[in-house]
Design a protein that fits this description.
9 strands; single chain; alpha/beta; about 20% strand
């Protein structure tokens, strides 16, 4: 009886040590997945976040001199792939918006609405975007807009949805687009909703230096991972944008209080 007790106590200590070590590894991994891995934007601002907008042809004619006084950054749609035809098109107001934003000096990023079903198609989209943005000053990342459109029945539809991509396949598509963008010397990221990032994309497989831009119109972001930008409203207003509503975003600076959990 005494002999068996001598062996049991060290074994318990070994198990406890293993549990503590595993917990430390998990905590370290979580901490290292934050925006600190990426190049900082707006770190000179003495605020928790800066306020900005994203726009497309649907916002109509924009008076950028007025926007500059009301927003601290802008993200402009460069183009999109049709969710039915699969055709790649330029946003009809991209050049106008890029020129207008550049003329005011407002920090500018771009996004492309994807319907890529393979990494090769994602690379095709990235090359299309790179050709479009070459004449302009793009200070902020180029984002792949990864989302599904809704059909008349209120359910997800479109060629990307119909491809029934796995979470790993979705991550591969995002990574392929962003790798092309980064190779050309730009920062890159992904835009999506909390629900799609949580349920449809294997976010642990995403490249660690990607900027995460999450859309969530709740009181706080429900996506459990690290993120850099929060599109918190699609019914906002910004001086100079004359459409009924404007998408509003917060870009977290790393200063001040932490982002909402």
């Amino acid at each position: 009886m005494n002999v068996s007790l001598k062996f049991k106590k060290p074994r318990r200590l070994q198990i406890l040590a293993l549990i503590i070590f595993s917990a430390a590894v998990i905590i370290t991994t979580v901490l290292l997945r934050g925006p600190s891995e990426k190049r900082s934007f707006f770190s000179d601002k003495n605020a928790e976040y800066v306020q900005g907008i994203d726009v497309s042809q649907h916002n109509g004619k924009i008076e950028w001199n007025k926007v500059r006084a009301d927003a601290e950054f802008a993200i402009i749609r460069a183009g999109f792939r049709g969710y039915g035809t699969g055709e790649i098109s330029e946003d009809s107001r991209f050049k106008e918006n890029a020129e207008g934003a550049n003329s005011t000096g407002i920090p500018t990023g771009v996004y492309f609405y994807t319907q890529a079903t393979t990494p090769a198609e994602a690379e095709e989209e990235a090359e299309f975007v790179l050709a479009l943005i070459k004449p302009y000053a793009i200070d902020l990342p180029v984002f792949i807009d990864f989302e599904y459109p809704y059909g008349e029945d209120g359910k997800y539809t479109g060629r990307m949805r119909n491809a029934a991509l796995s979470g790993s396949e979705s991550a591969e598509i995002i990574n392929a687009f962003c790798a092309c963008i980064k190779k050309a010397g730009y920062d890159a990221g992904v835009y999506s909703s909390s629900s799609i990032l949580t349920l449809e994309v294997k976010t642990t497989a995403l490249d660690k230096d990607l900027y995460i831009w999450v859309a969530d119109y709740n009181a706080k972001v429900t996506y459990p991972g690290a993120y850099d930008l929060w599109q918190y409203s699609k019914r906002g207003h910004c001086d100079g944008v004359n459409s009924k509503y404007t998408d509003l975003n917060r870009w977290y600076t790393g200063n001040g209080a932490d982002k909402p959990d």
